[in-house]
């Protein structure tokens, strides 16, 4: 796939000495949905702000479709749409005026049909002549999205776009995102709703302490870092794990009526077959079994609770190397 956004060796140190970003390397592919996950203060908004020209980097470079954001700022910025976390709009403008003005800021000719389409997609058409000050918080959030789409960007940043909004807006938002992706727009989102990233994203990036811990295809991440659990409902309760099964790391559950076995998602099913054979040899029967796998949220929590220096962990380091050298 073609790279549309390239971030190389990007760092940001503020005057106070705080280092918000540390040698970020990241390539985003045209037409993908990329979710950037990280706890508060991890560097997500700083990274987005640098790419969008709001904050200056201390070192490194960013290119959008080949345009450097510093030396070719106008061309680079015209390709980017940003939906910020904060509700920042001109309160006394009408919806139609502020969205149309945003299009003109990027030198785009007037296109009422496009503005109408965006407003209809965001359920704002009936509010087009209302002043923004009269709108609810959810409607104001929709206006921000409309403004970001007014100039038909190729790359759309969504910085916590559905934080604190109603269910209806979340649904409309993700329907719109799917449509934008289908038209070739690249979506980069940060979100605290990890279920959204799990449902929507093609790739996941995890940032913590100003460093990229890993970048991976969502499905591959689930396979590599997810944990699976096998639960066996026993024919007869156990008071303790038999000594001959100690090496499996089994745990009793439901008052001894069930056994649980936790294992890496990548392990071959032969391990399970061997375990069931060992249970049979130990005279332990079961009436039912079921498996479950870690959610993306559980994987994320396990990653961000590691020291960022833990990116030297071979699995994480390999992922970082792969995304830098092959994408």
Protein model, in words:
There is one protein chain. By secondary structure, the chain is of the alpha/beta class. Among the domains are: 3-79 and 153-222, 3-Layer(aba) Sandwich (Rossmann fold); 227-293, Alpha-Beta Plaits. Helices cover 35% and strands 27% of the residues. The chain contains 11 helices and 14 strands. It has a 6-stranded mixed beta sheet with strand order 6-7-8-3-9-10, with helices on both faces. Strands 2-1-4-5 form a 4-stranded antiparallel beta sheet. The chain starts with a strand and ends with a helix. The model is unreliable at 308-327 (pLDDT under 50).
SSE layout:
Elements: E1 3-13, E2 19-29, E3 33-37, H1 44-51, E4 59-64, E5 67-68, H2 73-78, E6 80-83, H3 95-105, H4 112-121, H5 137-149, E7 155-159, H6 167-182, E8 186-190, H7 194-200, E9 203-208, E10 211-217, H8 218-225, E11 227-234, E12 251-253, E13 258-264, H9 270-281, E14 286-293, H10 296-304, H11 314-326
Parallel strand pairs: 3-8, 3-9, 6-7, 7-8
Antiparallel strand pairs: 1-2, 1-4, 4-5, 9-10, 11-13, 11-14, 12-13
């Amino acid at each position: 796939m073609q790279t549309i956004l390239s971030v190389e060796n990007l760092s940001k140190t503020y005057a106070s000495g705080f280092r918000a970003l540390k040698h970020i390397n990241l390539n985003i592919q045209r037409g993908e949905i990329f979710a950037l996950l990280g706890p508060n203060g991890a560097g997500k908004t700083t990274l987005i702000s640098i790419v969008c020209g709001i904050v200056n980097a201390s070192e490194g470079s960013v290119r959008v479709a080949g345009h450097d954001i510093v030396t070719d700022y106008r061309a680079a910025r015209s390709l980017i749409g940003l939906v910020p976390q904060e509700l920042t709009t001109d309160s006394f403008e009408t919806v139609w005026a502020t969205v149309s003005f945003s299009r003109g800021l990027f030198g785009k000719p007037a296109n009422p049909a496009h503005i109408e389409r965006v407003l209809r997609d965001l359920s704002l058409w009936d509010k087009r002549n209302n002043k923004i000050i009269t709108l609810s918080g959810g409607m104001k959030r929709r206006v921000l999205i409309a403004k970001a789409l007014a100039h038909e960007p190729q790359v759309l940043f969504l910085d916590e776009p559905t934080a604190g909004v109603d269910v209806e807006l979340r649904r409309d938002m993700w329907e719109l995102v799917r449509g934008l992706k289908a038209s070739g727009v690249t979506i980069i989102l940060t979100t605290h709703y990890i279920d959204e990233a799990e449902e929507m994203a093609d790739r996941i990036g995890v940032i913590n302490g100003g460093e990229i811990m890993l970048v991976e295809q969502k499905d591959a991440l689930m396979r590599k870092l997810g944990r699976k659990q096998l639960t066996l409902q026993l024919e007869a309760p156990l008071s303790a794990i038999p000594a001959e099964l100690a090496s499996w790391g089994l745990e009793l559950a439901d008052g001894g009526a069930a056994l649980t076995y936790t294992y890496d998602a990548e392990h071959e099913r032969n391990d399970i077959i061997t375990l069931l054979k060992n249970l049979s040899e130990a005279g332990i029967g079961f009436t039912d079994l079921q498996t479950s796998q870690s959610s993306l949220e559980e994987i994320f929590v396990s990653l961000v609770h590691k020291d960022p220096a833990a990116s030297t962990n071979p699995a994480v380091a390999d992922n970082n190397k792969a995304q830098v050298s092959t994408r």
